[in-house]
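Help needed: design a sequence for this.
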């Protein structure tokens, strides 16, 4: 057998005429689909990766807006950092009592970020999108056991920028200045990045981003109140490489985002009038990471990450006579985590292994506040994931064990101990043609959380979830014409969640759906990308008055058509169709939104290093309110940005 490696696509083909015995590895030219996004056809995991180029192209005002183009992802009020939250496959965020239900997890460089449940306050993504070079959305539980437990809807993994992203790994100094403006609300952003790499030992980065946005106008010309915000952010990051072959690295990073809201409703989703507050939000994440990639052994590739994520929300009532304790409640939520992992690559007979084994310690510490019980949630975990390749098969079993102790005695609550064994497996087979089929199973548990300390019945009850997935993918070049490339991935899933504690009067939910991702490009620079999500959710609670699952997002199809010219110009039209939600108690009509964009990246001459982008979102100025959102979406918005790297 001879293995052909095509970029991230690995094809195993018979080649007896060329090799008689042991397998050989031949590196061929990669199959590159030059659309805006690479379809992850090489894995059974339902994952979408948004790289730095797409992050820049989207000109997002919030981190949440980076993610809603992934199939199965829906935002709740994603146009502002406060009150925005992420729903994946019908879990994670809703417009009801809580801004987050802990079934979607957020990680920044491995640090777990955000509160689990806060009453009518969104708590997930206050950080600025300018800090990140990569966003990864894992849908469902498959592929999450290496990173955490209870990710029933899925997981978002964000990666901050490094100095070497600007220096190219070469010694030198780089300065990048980014300026952006959007017309709807007169939004402004300035992002300044300093990157310095004096040699192959040290690299340093500093980024400061200031963003402000006024209240935007919807498609009817009406102003959406309380949609203005101001978020100064900064990122400091340094890496030291050492050892004879620079196989050791130590990275320290700190990112900080602040948000201030004056005289705004306590309920960030605008559904219930509790009164107004002045609210200051401060998100801080500190990460120390050590890596060792041995040059002598494939059995040693160590990654140790120590992180501390602190989210502080201070608020006071604007009416001094108010007696509502919610309005004068400060929340301080600190998550400290230590993860140590080793990756081993080896062969056993005809099977090639990529085995990751790790241990983890995590402590969540929260002050007591109105509607938010205080205490400590301490967890110890061990996990194992092994990607085993043999023939055309890839078999990936995963296990995770967690032991939990919750202590609320400092605030008058009790102590609780829980433990859980979780895991799953995927099996994938790929033919010589580039066509592959796969299936997977995952079982995960969402262990009790601090928010439920006031309800002892919930403190020994884990939310349990089983997910079955099946799908197929195809990736190949010169499919229709010489020099073209095609990648397609279709994934069907069914998730059943039992013993639910996140919602009132709901104990069992079932969600099933299909997700499609595709990309096609030609040698002439034309390209198209497509993603779609079609799903149904059912409330399976015994005695429920309706089987409709209230968190179920609308079906969506997103199609982009564009062309890249050889002079650095990229032009694109994008259409987004949201289907009508008739099953909902609050039906949402269908909508079709047009977006257009053009970008230019100078590659030589006096303009070398300059990037210019112009986009129009909601070109036809349609009025629409995304399903699950509590306010109308912005009307026509012009966006322009200019960046220069010196």
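Sure. Designed sequence:
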């Amino acid at each position: 057998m001879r293995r052909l490696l095509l970029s991230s696509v690995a094809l195993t083909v018979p080649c007896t005429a060329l090799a008689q015995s042991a397998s050989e590895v031949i590196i061929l030219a990669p199959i590159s689909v030059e659309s805006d996004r690479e379809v992850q056809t090489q894995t059974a995991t339902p994952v979408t990766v948004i790289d730095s180029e797409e992050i820049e192209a989207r000109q997002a005002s919030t981190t949440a807006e980076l993610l809603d183009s992934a199939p199965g992802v829906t935002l709740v009020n994603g146009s502002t950092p406060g009150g925005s939250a992420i729903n994946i496959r019908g879990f994670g965020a809703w417009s009801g009592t809580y801004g987050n239900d802990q079934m979607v997890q957020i990680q920044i460089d491995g640090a777990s970020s955000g509160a689990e449940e806060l009453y009518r306050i969104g708590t997930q993504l206050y950080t600025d999108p300018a800090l990140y070079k990569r966003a990864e959305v894992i849908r469902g539980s498959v592929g999450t056991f290496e990173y955490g437990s209870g990710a029933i809807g899925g997981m978002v993994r964000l990666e901050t920028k490094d100095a070497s992203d600007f220096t190219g790994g070469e010694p030198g100094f780089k300065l990048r200045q980014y300026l952006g403006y959007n017309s709807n609300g007169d939004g402004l952003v300035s992002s300044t990045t300093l990157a310095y790499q004096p040699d192959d030992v040290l690299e340093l980065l500093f980024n400061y981003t200031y963003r402000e946005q006024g209240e935007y106008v919807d498609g009817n010309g009406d102003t959406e109140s309380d949609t203005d915000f101001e978020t100064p952010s900064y990122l400091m990051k340094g890496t030291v490489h050492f050892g004879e072959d620079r196989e050791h690295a130590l990275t320290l990073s700190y990112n900080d985002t602040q948000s201030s809201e004056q005289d705004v409703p306590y309920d960030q989703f605008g559904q219930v009038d509790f009164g107004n507050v002045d609210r200051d939000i401060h998100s801080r994440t500190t990460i120390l990471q050590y890596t060792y990639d041995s040059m002598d052994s494939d059995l040693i590739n160590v990654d140790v990450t120590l992180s501390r994520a602190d989210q502080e929300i201070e608020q006071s009532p604007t009416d001094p006579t108010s007696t509502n304790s919610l309005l004068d409640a400060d929340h301080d939520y600190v998550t400290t985590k230590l993860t140590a992992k080793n990756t081993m690559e080896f062969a056993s007979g005809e099977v090639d292994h990529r085995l990751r084994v790790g241990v983890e310690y995590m402590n969540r510490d929260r002050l007591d506040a109105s509607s938010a019980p205080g205490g400590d949630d301490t967890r110890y975990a061990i996990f194992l994931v092994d990607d085993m390749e043999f023939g055309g098969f890839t078999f990936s079993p995963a296990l995770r064990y967690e032991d939990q102790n919750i202590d609320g005695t400092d605030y008058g609550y009790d102590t609780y101990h829980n433990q859980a064994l979780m895991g799953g497996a995927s099996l994938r087979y790929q033919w010589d043609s580039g066509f592959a089929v796969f299936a997977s199973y995952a079982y995960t548990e969402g262990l009790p959380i601090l928010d439920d300390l006031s309800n002892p019945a919930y403190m020994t009850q884990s939310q349990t979830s089983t997910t079955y997935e099946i799908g197929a993918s195809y990736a190949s070049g010169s499919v229709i014409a010489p020099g073209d490339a095609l990648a397609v991935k279709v994934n069907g899933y069914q998730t059943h969640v039992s013993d639910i504690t996140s919602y009132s009067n709901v104990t069992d939910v079932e969600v099933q759906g299909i997700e499609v991702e595709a990309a096609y490009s030609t040698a002439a620079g034309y390209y198209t990308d497509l993603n779609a999500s079609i799903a149904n959710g059912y409330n399976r609670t015994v005695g429920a008055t309706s089987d409709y699952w209230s968190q179920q997002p609308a079906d969506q199809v997103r199609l982009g058509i564009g062309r890249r010219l050889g002079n650095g110009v990229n032009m694109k039209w994008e259409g987004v169709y949201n289907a009508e939600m008739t099953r909902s108690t609050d039906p949402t009509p269908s909508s079709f939104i047009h977006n257009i964009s053009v970008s230019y990246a100078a590659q030589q001459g006096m303009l070398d290093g300059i990037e210019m982008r112009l986009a129009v979102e909601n070109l036809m100025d349609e009025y629409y309110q995304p399903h699950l959102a509590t306010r109308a979406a912005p009307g026509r918005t012009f966006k322009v940005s200019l960046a220069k790297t010196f």
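The chain has two helices and 32 strands.
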